[in-house]
Amino acid sequence: MNVIGASVSEAATFGSHETRDIVLPNQIEHVSQIAVDIGGSLAKIVYFTSSADRKGGRLHFKKFETDKIDECIDFIAELVEDARHIATTEQVLKATGGGAHLYHDKLSKRLPGIVVQKEDEMECLITGLNFFITEIPYEVFTYNEQVDKNPMQFEEMTQAIYPYMLVNIGSGVSILKVTGPDQFTRISGTSLGGGTLWGLLSLLTDAHHFDDMLELSQTGDNRNVDLMVGDIYGSDYGRLGLKSSRIASSFGKVFKKGVRQSPGSFSSADISKSLLFMVSNNIGQIAYLNAQQHGLKRIYFGGFFIRGHPITMNTLSYAIDFWSGGEMKALFLRHEGHLGATGAFLKHKPIRKARHSFSYSENFRPDTAATPSRVYDVLEQTNVELRSEDKI
Q1: Binning pLDDT at 50, 70 and 90, where does residue 140 land?
Q2: Which of 121, 255, 286, 387 has its CA 20 to 30 A from that of 300?
């Protein structure tokens, strides 16, 4: 793949929490691979199409619920069929994630003539993350409503990225320490991840899709469900630095001795917000403790659990900033949910990298201050493609 001049597309997305294409203006050769990352909850696809009216093409990103894996495979089959008339080399499906093993036979049977190659999940995550960090301008950002008037701030691109920690939040959570391009260790993890939130909200609310659950949390008030420090002390607990607004016990107000609570006793929105805080706070503290133990300052959060959701990002950022005393930084990505699939895609062939010298596009910054509660909406409504001025 030729990633020289790679940038985020200006084309509008369709639907909530959709992911922008990546423009590859210098990729002129036929691309024979498609990549899929099949996790416990979601299957993510990355594929390339050539532009009909200009040089180069685009990387596209799509997701399916893993429960609908047949729909996912049908979509891949359509991509394969569309490419048959221009394919000059053997077509390959790069598969990663647990589903690459679980569904390998099904993929091979449903995609005759296609070579299905399994790739290591953690290697793909690191390859994908490194690509976005080093090659895509305005990809990495911080989000902190407590610190900045504009809570969203883009990070400057750098090639000096090691060491760092990746907290990949999928159905569960894996925490990786990365010290070089192919040097990483899984140092921790937790079973309390996106699948936990999805499962509990499915039981406790009427929401049927994860995006619906996130939308519910926007209007919820967790104080109707959670027991706060102020509910116990009547004010701040100054000696320990605990504000009255801090959560003392998640779901602490639900239990009342001798009272049998009914499902309708608490609103779905309040429950959604409480659970989102509970899972996010837990992940944030585990991330901080691991970063402290291993002396790491830069913590990247990936996985479809986040989805550019302000409450989630702010909770994770606050936890990292609070416990580290401002010494550590929580970092987020616009293509956070597609790290593994992108890494698998890029593993098919070595990539040509850019010697970046950005001009106009590097001075362009999307205005994210006006509507911080709709971070992705603001990002995806910008109409500028951020392109490199390199002449190779």
Answers
A1: very high
A2: 387
